[in-house]
């Protein structure tokens, strides 16, 4: 995986390793002793009821939240005490539930701006000719070439999400953390997003927080289920769906809500 800022994870270990992680807010255990290993090139889905600790876990990985105890290691390097921008430079990128694209800038300008953080200051001050290779590659991956010069403000909800994913790709990460990427999308957009995630996972490690069970069944390979801040069960989609604990605390709850 050339072009990434760090060496590959040591043989036999995961790219991301979390051990005995604890996050306590005013006496409430948002994360309670989580152990998690995600291998390089994996497309991992993270599911669980509201309040299970999914977003808090992602916040810890990206430096937004400091853990109470435990360790988080990425490509052999501890993330303890690192600031958010330092973690980005290590090769970790994330999206949020709310889009953060710049509406007045074109699709291409959004991608170029995202990629610029790796460039030295003198190159940012010079007027560039043409499109940088990493920007062109990201644009092709997300399939928005025909809209490259259009303002991001005109994009559909799904296209905005793809642009945001493209902005991460342009930064050259090894690990992408995506928070509910298909929320609010049409059926066609969800299908295109699933294909996009599968394509991205050929060259990156991807962790997806998701609530759409149909989407999960179609595109997930490995699933980790969180419940009350702990890992409840982990495995392939069939094993997770068949587990009675999952049916009780997650899938069963969805049926009750629907009723």
Helical segment count: 10
Strand content: 15-25%
What is the overall shape?
globular
Alpha-beta content class: alpha/beta
Q: How far apart, in Å, are the first and last alpha carbons?
A: 47 Å
Rounded to an integer, what's the Rg over CA atoms? 19 Å
Number of strands: 10
- What spatial order of strands do you see in the largest sheet? 6-7-8-3-9-10
> H/E element string?
EEEHEEHEHHHHEHEHEEHH
Largest sheet: 6 strands, mixed
- Average residue pLDDT: 86
Helix content: 25-40%
Report on the structure:
- The structure is a single chain.
- The protein starts with 15 loop residues before the first strand and ends with a helix.
- The strands form two sheets. A six-stranded mixed beta sheet has the order 6-7-8-3-9-10, sandwiched between helices.
- The chain is globular, with a radius of gyration of 19 Å.
- The protein has helices spanning 54-61, 84-90, 107-115, 121-125, 133-142, 157-170, 187-200, 213-219, 237-242, 244-258; strands at 16-25, 28-38, 43-47, 69-74, 77-78, 92-94, 175-179, 205-209, 222-227, 230-236.
- Helix 3 (107-115) packs across helix 5 (133-142), helix 3 (107-115) packs parallel to helix 6 (157-170) and helix 5 (133-142) packs antiparallel against helix 6 (157-170).
- The chain has ten helices and ten strands.
- The chain is of the alpha/beta class and 259 residues long.
- 37% of the residues lie in helices and 23% in strands.
């Amino acid at each position: 995986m050339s072009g990434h800022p760090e060496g590959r994870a040591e043989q036999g270990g995961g790219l991301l390793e979390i051990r005995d992680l604890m996050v306590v807010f005013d006496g409430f255990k948002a994360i309670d002793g989580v152990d998690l290993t995600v291998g390089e090139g994996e497309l991992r889905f993270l599911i669980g009821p509201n309040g299970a600790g999914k977003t808090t876990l992602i916040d810890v990985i990206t430096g937004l939240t400091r853990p109470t105890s435990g360790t988080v290691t990425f490509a052999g390097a501890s993330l303890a005490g690192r600031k958010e921008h330092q973690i980005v430079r290590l090769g970790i990128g994330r999206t949020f539930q709310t889009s953060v694209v710049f509406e007045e800038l074109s699709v291409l300008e959004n991608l170029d701006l995202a990629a610029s953080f790796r460039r030295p200051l003198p190159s940012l001050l010079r007027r560039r000719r043409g499109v940088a290779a990493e920007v062109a590659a990201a644009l092709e991956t997300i399939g928005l070439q025909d809209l490259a010069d259009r303002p991001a403000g005109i994009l559909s909800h799904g296209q905005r999400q793809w642009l945001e994913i493209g902005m991460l790709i342009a930064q050259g990460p090894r690990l992408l953390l995506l928070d509910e990427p298909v929320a609010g999308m049409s059926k066609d957009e969800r299908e295109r997003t699933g294909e996009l995630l599968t394509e991205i996972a050929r060259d990156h490690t991807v962790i997806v927080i998701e609530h759409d069970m149909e989407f999960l069944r179609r595109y997930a390979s490995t699933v980790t289920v969180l419940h009350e801040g702990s890992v409840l069960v982990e495995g392939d989609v069939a094993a997770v769906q068949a587990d009675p604990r999952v049916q009780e605390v997650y899938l069963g709850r969805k049926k009750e809500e629907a009723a």
